[in-house]
Amino acid sequence: MRVRQGNVRDWPFIYALGKVGIPDSISPWRKQPMEVTLKYREEFLRGFWTWIQQSESEVFIVEEPEGEGKEEAPAQPIGYLVIQGSAREELTGITQGWIMDIVVLPEWRGKGAGRVLLDAAEDYCRKHGIAYLGLAVSSHNVKALKLYENFGFAEERKLLVKSLD
Question: Other CB atoms closer than 10 Å to residue 5's CB: what's the count?
Fold first, then answer.
């Protein structure tokens, strides 16, 4: 696996994959038909590339080379990560890196692609003198939580929700 900086040519892949991870990320508290949620996600994704450019965020693509042992071999994209390097922590105002989105193709999950993307995000932060890296994850997404905790992320806050139905 290798990681590279993404660009506008990766947009069709990001747009398609950005919808794939939604069922794993939705909280069971949010009682809404999946088709409504996916429609909302599509609307969000339509403006995502513009937001990435305007916010000076970076995209990393993890890919699997198709030719063995060849660094320059054609490769299949298998996941992406979007990081905003100028996010401000809401209580302290400290600048931090913020992982806006990270998604890996389902068949590649658990095989190291997420770790490669997180390494790229950490390298980006170190290169730019950013001391903190944050992200948000649904508490029921146990596989993602385990990855992040094993990578050294620690819980800082809890987001609470109450259904009023």
Answer: 11
